[in-house]
Amino acid sequence: MKIIFKILSLFLTLCMMFVFTVPCFASNSKNNIDVRIIDGNTITTEVLADNDSLKTVKVTEDKEKTYVVTYDKKANELTTVETDMHTGKSKNTVAKLKLNSKANEINTAAASSSYSNFGMFFDGSYYVTNTTWLIENSDEESKYRTSDSTVLYNFKAAVDNMVRSENAAITAGGVAICGAVVGTLTAPTGIGAVIGAVTALGGSITCANKLWDAWSYQDDVDFYWDRA
Predict the structure, then answer these.
(1) Signal peptide span per the entry (predicted)?
(2) Contact 121, 100 (CB under 8 A)
């Protein structure tokens, strides 16, 4: 009798767990809400609309800013409304979706160098032949240096990290999405803008996070380029 009672109790417990758990997951799935911690900040992503004409995504950055990004599938436009949650001020940006053309360029400097590294979409690169360095920043400005230095190796590390993050983003989201986001968002003000754009185009938050990392490393590239 005790065994039967335990079995019935276990069955009822499992039933209760199922009843109370399933609606919670269904609600999150239905509303397409994703909450996660990125670099110590709470990032909330919510799909507000997704149909044949458009997809709208709202991203909240740790009670600091919100980004409402709409991808107009017919006009091929990306509209971003960035709102400061403290002041209530908003900034509206509309941009035609475009692919960063750098991906189609053939880099001739790489062929003649001993070792080199450069991104597919992000600018910033180095080409080393013997003791000569050719380094480029994100504005595609270049300079030559003929001796090794700590700054040059810091520049190299920044480029390597940028390219590594870009490759991870491409692995997670594909060339088309990454190229479109980098080509359209020339200077994103926060990770929320990148997450909004990537998810509006059908990509993942992982892809967006890696793209944001690449942008951050590109800032390091420019920092060390100025000092080289």
Answers:
(1) 1-26
(2) yes
Q: Which residue, 137, 133, 127, is CA-closest to 148?
A: 133
- What confidence tens digit (pLDDT) does each residue in 18-69 have? 332 233 223 344 458 999 999 888 999 999 999 999 999 999 998 899 999 9
Picking from 162, 164, 214, 169, the residue whose alpha carbon sits closest to that of residue 188 is: 214
Q: How many CB atoms lie within 10 A of CB 225?
A: 23
Q: Is residue 127 helix, strand or coil?
A: strand
Which class for 20: exposed (0-12), middle (13-18), buried (19 or more C-beta within 10 A)? exposed
Within 8 A by CB and 6+ apart from 109, the residues are 116, 125, 127, 134
Residue range of the domain that includes 82: 36-98+161-227
Residue 169 lies in a domain: yes
Secondary structure of residue 203 in the 3-state scheme: coil
pTM for the predicted model, two decimal places: 0.79
The phi and psi torsions of 109 (rounded to 5 degrees) equal -65, -30
Q: Which two tokens stand for residue 120?
A: 């597919």
- Which residues are paired to 74 by β-bridges? none
Does residue 116 sit within a domain? no
Predicted confidence (pLDDT) at residue 140 exceeds the cutoff of 70: yes
Q: In what side-by-side order are the strands of the sheet with 90-96? A: 33-38, 41-50, 54-61, 65-72, 77-84, 90-96
State how many domains the chain has.
1
